[in-house]
Design brief:
This protein is 34% helix and 19% strand. It has nine helices and eight strands.
Length: 308
């Protein structure tokens, strides 16, 4: 492929998102922002074409078609599709289903609870033009992700699936997300680490900005629902197990078993049964080239919102 963002080159782009019970008005707002960012990228020559794919894992269809969502303004998309999956595939499974139809040079993966800044697409495409850069993540606002990145190169341990641009070759090399192992959380960490094992660089692009609708509670912790907390607990054990840190996985499992809340103990019981039955994932990265475990996190963090 031509090098996206390079002098005289431009890329074909696919934007995709997966819905789950999102309010129709919020989906329309998301689409309008992405359309504006793609329009700017087309006018500036950063991309030569854009398409939009919306998948829906909701029990009932949230948006019956993209035509209504795109009404009221210029349409920068050569193609726009909407598909109701008829089942909850999770974020990973939903994006994998959409990846099957992707034939553009780069794919922009986004959460539907985001709002693109006007230069988001152009900045991400510029960021992916570096040698062996396979994945570029955006800077989230107002709550910036605290994981560290190299200020000179942008190198980062993993890219948040909230908003990242990926080359189609990376999807081929990795097979996409591991939807069987990581239904809702940890899929982006695992995907990024497998991309790095395949020789690709993962970078953070501070100038590519996206609004993400997240909030903090009174203790400085990001507000999360029960399903998110459940999946986060599962991932806390599965990720270190897969990345050759069985010692850490068992330590975290024991901590879940001793936790005071019912949710943690319930997750622990299911995981313990999986361990006993030999159902844990095959370990990879035995030399610990990419797997990074810093406390309870999957990368060294620059700061914490809970800092006094």
């Amino acid at each position: 492929m031509s090098d996206p963002g390079a002098q005289g080159g431009s890329a074909s782009l696919r934007v995709q998102t997966v819905l789950y019970d999102n309010a129709p008005g919020d989906v329309a707002r998301f689409v309008r922002s992405v359309a504006a960012a793609c329009g700017y990228a087309l006018e500036s020559g950063a991309i030569r074409s854009a398409e939009l794919a919306i998948g829906d894992s909701s029990p009932e269809p949230v948006a019956q078609g993209v035509e209504e969502l795109l009404s009221g303004g210029p349409d920068p998309f050569a193609r726009a599709t909407y598909a109701h999956f008829g089942a909850n595939l999770g974020s990973a499974g939903g994006h994998n289903r959409l990846f099957e139809e992707a034939d553009t040079e780069v794919v922009l993966v986004m959460n539907p609870d985001t709002y693109a800044s006007p230069r988001l697409v152009a900045e991400l495409v510029a960021g992916i033009s570096g040698a062996q850069v396979g994945v570029v993540e955006a800077r989230q606002l107002p709550l910036e992700h605290p994981k560290a990145h190299d200020p000179a190169t942008g190198e980062v341990s993993w890219a948040s699936g909230t908003c990242f641009l990926v080359r189609r070759e990376v999807l081929h090399d990795t097979g996409g997300f591991d939807a069987e192992l990581f239904f809702l959380h940890g899929d982006d960490v695992d995907f990024s680490w497998r991309a790095r094992l395949a020789g690709w660089r993962v970078v953070h692009r501070p100038s590519a900005r996206v609004f993400h609708d997240k909030r903090l509670d009174d203790t400085g912790v990001i507000v999360a629902g029960r399903r998110e907390l459940e999946q986060s607990a599962i991932v806390s054990v599965l990720l270190p197990w897969r990345y050759s840190r069985r010692d850490l996985a068992l330590e975290r499992l024991a901590a879940l078993e001793a936790a005071p809340d019912e949710l943690s103990r319930s997750v622990a019981a299911a995981l313990r049964a999986r361990v006993d039955q030999g159902g844990m994932p095959e370990a990879i990265d035995p030399e610990h080239r990419v797997g990074e475990f810093a406390g309870d996190d999957y990368a060294r963090h620059r700061f914490s919102y809970a800092d006094p």
